Amino acid sequence: MTLDEIISNAEFCANEYKKFSEIAPERSLTFKKYEEDHRQLAEWLRELKQYRESTLPANDWIPVSEGLPEVNGWYQCTVILNDLPRTMELFYKNGKWLDNRRINMFDTYDIFGYGNTKEKHKLSYQELISEFEWSQVVIAWKPLSQPYMAESEKDEISF
């Protein structure tokens, strides 16, 4: 059940107990107490709902079904791993999600175009890419968050 359904159910029960107290006056004190309890429960649940809506961060995830990044680079991704959603950073390049954790740092620099090594890899570029192409399901992505920047001189970090 959703929170809205539970609130609606509590209000329905309160209204039913009000009717019962009119139908059976000999038990009206009991039914009025139940009515008050259910109205209080509905009120608390509305407050909870309002609190949750005001404190939850905006959903800034972009479903893959709505589009892929236009710029190659690192992104925070939601992936399905062992049938469960997980988040991880993946590199997006030319329509593919890449996970560089399975190769060494120097290969990564060369593949992503940041290296200046003169040594040739034993594997071709395509073979190396296929070794660490992310084969799990990416369902959503978002740009990486930016590091903290001080808004005023009081907040500046000094070492």
SSE topology sketch:
Blueprint: H1 3-23, H2 28-55, E1 62-63, E2 73-81, E3 84-93, E4 96-98, H3 105-111, H4 125-131, E5 137-143
Antiparallel strand pairs: 1-5, 2-3, 2-5, 3-4
Helix pairs in contact: 1-2
Describe the protein's architecture and organization:
- This protein is an alpha+beta fold.
- The chain has two domains: 3-55; 62-143, no CATH class.
- It contains four helices and five strands.
- It has helices spanning 3-23, 28-55, 105-111, 125-131; strands at 62-63, 73-81, 84-93, 96-98, 137-143.
- The protein has a five-stranded antiparallel beta sheet with strand order 1-5-2-3-4, with no helix packed on it.
- The longest helix has 28 residues, at 28-55.
- The model is unreliable at 103-109 (pLDDT under 50).
Features:
single chain; 159 residues; alpha+beta; 2 domains; five-stranded antiparallel β-sheet; 40% helix; 19% strand; elongated
